[in-house]
UniProtKB/TrEMBL annotation:
It comes from the Bacteria. CDD domains: PoNe_Nuclease. Belongs to the UPF0102 family. This is UPF0102 protein COV86_02600. It holds the Pfam family UPF0102. One of its GO terms (molecular function) is nucleic acid binding. The lineage of its organism: Bacteria, Candidatus Roizmaniibacteriota.
């Protein structure tokens, strides 16, 4: 991954975090990594715990950012969710895997896809 891609990803994750906070989510953890997978943002709102994949693009040459989330990525996220729950609990929450799609540029766009399954 190039330095540009890493910087783009960090900007996208910050935009996603701002979006969540502005919509009454509480950030629980960011960039939770295990050997099983990674979760960009873990947030809670009311009785739900959200495991969020953030995808960022600066243009649409390769399609919408959310289109990069496939079955394999969801599978890895689920494995990381299992480990997170084993380590930290949160058993009383309803669990959701979600995607935040961030398109940067003049027409910046942030889309939240709640409770996705591929």
């Amino acid at each position: 991954m190039s330095l540009y891609q890493k910087q783009l990803g960090k900007i996208g994750e910050q935009r996603a975090e701002d979006y969540l906070k502005n919509n009454d989510f509480t950030i629980v953890k960011k960039n939770f990594r295990t050997y099983r997978g990674e979760i960009d943002i873990i947030a809670k709102k009311q009785n739900c715990l959200y495991f969020i994949e953030v995808k960022t693009r600066s243009n649409l040459k390769k399609g919408q950012p959310w289109e990069a989330v496939n079955k394999i990525k969801i599978h890895h996220i689920k494995k990381a969710v299992d480990y997170f729950l084993l380590k930290y609990g949160y058993r009383k929450y309803k669990l959701k895997i979600s995607v935040i799609s961030v398109l940067l540029g003049d027409d910046e766009e942030i889309k939240f896809f709640d409770n996705v399954e591929c």
